[in-house]
Amino acid sequence: MIHQPEDNGVPKPIRTVLNTNEKIFSNIFFNDGNLAKAFPLSNVVASTRVNGSDGMSDGFNPATWKLQVVRKAGDTLFITLDDIKKLPKTEVVFDFKCIEGWSQVTHWGGVKFADFINAYHLDTQCRMDYVGMHTPDNGYYVGIDTRSMLQPQTILCYEMNGQPLPMNQGYPLRLIIPVKYGIKHLKRIGTIFFSNTRPPDFWYERGYDYYAGL
Predict the structure, then answer these.
(1) Domain definitions of the chain by residue range
(2) 6-49+64-206, CATH topology level
(3) pTM listed for this prediction
(4) Strand 67-72 vs strand 191-195: parallel, antiparallel, or unpaired?
(5) pLDDT band for position 33 (50/70/90)?
(6) Helices (DSSP H) in 63-207: which residue ranges?
């Protein structure tokens, strides 16, 4: 049997196709005004599924958590949940789609990433092509194109169904980005950073496409 050389978990020819699809969707079909369909609260499911537990280690201490935002090497902001809650709140009700094939209409609340960027004067950083995030234990990590992060439905989320996030849903803070599949909705954000090259991405390294857009 002939084995194809692999690129991040898949044969190189397949990875080439995935990368080509990403260029098509991100450069041709992407539109800053495109939004995921919004739903009324009456459509929200009674029980919200958890899409994975990678990066949610048992040793996490929420009492000592602060969001770390790396502006540049040697320059990191440390931001508390109370600081984030002082910013204008946005609620999002959308159809959360998982790569496993299920979807649910779910309800989340938090701060628009774009509002967060403005509040902390991160405009220069957001001129870079990508935003990277990882959990406090570095067990889960994503890289996302900056344009999708600045979509008006993308939020740094601290509430689910009007209540604080449960631990298994990413307490104290997670990403909700309705224009992406669930693999990009990182739970329990520890660090945010910015880059002009693709940040590491957990599921990309396991054979999925990097863009993961809907």
Answers:
(1) 6-49+64-206
(2) Sulfite Oxidase; Chain A, domain 2 (3.90.420)
(3) 0.87
(4) parallel
(5) low
(6) 81-85, 113-119, 146-149
